[in-house]
Specification:
The structure is a single chain. This protein has 214 residues and is mainly α. Helix 1 packs across helix 3 and helix 2 packs across helix 3. It has 7 helices and 2 strands; from the N terminus they run H-H-H-E-E-H-H-H-H. A hairpin with a 2-residue loop joins strand 1 and strand 2. Among the domains are: 60 residues, Orthogonal Bundle (Arc Repressor Mutant, subunit A), CATH 1.10.10.10; 61 residues. Keywords: Coiled coil, DNA recombination, Meiosis, Nucleus. Its main location: nucleus.
């Protein structure tokens, strides 16, 4: 004859009872329902807790308007001294492992942040290509400067022509100024240089320039 299937109430009762044994601390009905995360409805949780308390499997005590439930300590297995010491040693080992893991995690996080700050291979390749292009262009400019072929022949002719024209204008205006100034100072009672100083005029000689050198 096949075994009877557990009813929903029996299953709910087992879930609630095993949970109280596992956590082994005082809980109210809402705490139990929330901990089971919907495995048992809140209505059934309250019914099961009331039933388990009535049967003596758990203990229920009323505090104000709510009932606090906990596992009957007679149903809780008390470990032997050797088992307790073994569990304590295991807890110490796990505590050390957690501390070591946290330290290692901090190191890895630091390395990860450092790697994130570094350029990627495509970015480095792109930068290398850019620098190679810049280096090539700079090399070409240096070769051009070293060869003296900085400007075209037409540009040279144009610059030389403009230069000669400017020197010619300079000479003409210099001579024109001298003629006018000599005419003004012909009957001037003072020294011509003093008049130039008063007017704030500097001659080529004052600034050490000789037009014949141009």
């Amino acid at each position: 004859m096949p075994p009877k299937q557990k009813t929903e109430d029996t299953s709910d009762s087992s879930l609630v009872f095993q949970h109280l044994l596992k956590v082994n601390r005082p809980l109210n009905a809402n705490d139990v329902a929330n901990s089971l995360q919907g495995s048992v409805s809140k209505t059934n949780v309250l019914k099961v807790l009331t039933s388990l308390a009535a049967s003596g499997k758990i203990v229920g005590k009323t505090y104000g308007k709510q009932v606090i439930y906990c596992a009957n300590q007679d149903n809780v297995e008390i470990p032997s001294l050797d088992d307790a010491e073994a569990e304590t040693a295991r807890i110490d080992q796990l505590t050390e492992l957690i501390a070591s893991t946290k330290t290692q995690n901090s190191i890895l996080v630091s390395k990860n942040n450092s790697l994130k700050a570094q350029k990627t291979i495509p970015q480095i390749s792109s930068r290398i290509d850019f620098l190679k292009s810049e280096n090539h262009n700079s090399s070409q400019r240096i070769l051009k400067l070293q060869s003296g072929d900085v400007i075209s022949q037409d540009e040279k002719v144009s610059i030389e022509s403009e230069y000669k024209n400017n020197v010619k204008l300079w000479s003409q205006r210099r001579r024109l100024f001298k003629d006018i100034f000599d005419s003004i100072t012909e009957n001037y009672p003072g020294k011509p240089k003093d008049l130039l100083a008063q007017l704030g005029i500097e001659t080529d000689e004052d600034v050490g320039i000789n037009i014949k050198e141009f």
